[in-house]
């Protein structure tokens, strides 16, 4: 086969392969595709919040960072009326620091930290057993996955991850507030 023809076939084959590699990035999957089990039964579908920002935080009531529940409640109180949803996702993945189960988790968060935002059922957020939302989030922002309790994902109005904040970043940190305000002010 002449060299020019071989090069043309190689280029054509390479061109045809590009869309297949790019497809996962353009799959159209957004946070609206996921739901979390509620401890009282039923589920909390993120599709119900489509077009609004959602702050999803893996939590643990026995963690040294548990006082962040208070900051999350401040965000819910301040920005909830403007459309922000805050969701606590209890997990025992890090240090088994969520010893409670079911409704006891939400009750402890309410009693000890004044939490009124949704607290879903205990869920795995890492590894092969991770909830599908967390596997999706890891594919959206692979370098920004939870490494401990109170990792925060901000889902934007478009349903994609707008930001991620590591455990030590307080919920009321100016960077978190700026990201939330940016999403709330974005055309919806």
Describe the fold and architecture.
This protein is α+β, with helices and mostly antiparallel strands and 188 residues long. It has one domain (29-185): Glutaredoxin. Helices cover 34% and strands 14% of the residues. It is built from 5 helices and 6 strands, in the order αβββαβααββα. The protein has helices at residues 3-22, 68-79, 103-113, 132-140, 174-185, and strands at 35-37, 43-45, 54-59, 85-90, 152-155, 161-165. The strands form 2 sheets. A 4-stranded mixed beta sheet has the order 4-3-5-6, with helices on one face. A hairpin with a 5-residue loop joins β5 (152-155) and β6 (161-165). The N and C termini lie far apart (56 Å). The relative contact order is 0.17. Mean pLDDT is 88; it is low at 3-26.
Note the main attributes of this structure:
four-stranded mixed beta sheet; 14% strand; globular; two-stranded antiparallel ribbon; alpha+beta; 188 residues; Glutaredoxin; disordered N terminus
């Amino acid at each position: 086969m002449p060299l020019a023809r071989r090069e043309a076939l190689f280029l054509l084959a390479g061109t045809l392969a590009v869309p297949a590699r790019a497809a996962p990035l353009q799959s159209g999957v957004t946070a609206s595709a996921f739901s979390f089990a509620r401890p009282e039964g039923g589920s909390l579908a993120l599709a119900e919040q489509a077009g609004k920002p959602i702050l999803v935080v893996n939590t643990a009531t026995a963690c040294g960072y548990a006082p962040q529940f208070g900051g999350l409640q401040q965000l819910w109180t301040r920005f909830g009326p403007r459309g922000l949803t805050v969701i606590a996702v209890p997990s025992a993945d890090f240090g088994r620091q969520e010893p409670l189960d079911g409704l006891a988790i939400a009750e402890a968060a309410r009693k000890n930290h004044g939490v009124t935002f949704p607290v879903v059922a205990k869920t795995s957020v890492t590894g092969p057993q991770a909830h599908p939302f967390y596997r999706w989030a890891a594919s959206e922002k692979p370098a920004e996955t939870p490494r401990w309790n109170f990792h925060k994902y901000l889902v934007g109005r478009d349903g994609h991850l707008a930001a991620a904040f590591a455990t030590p970043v307080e919920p009321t940190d100016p960077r978190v507030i700026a990201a939330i305000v940016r999403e709330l002010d974005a055309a919806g």
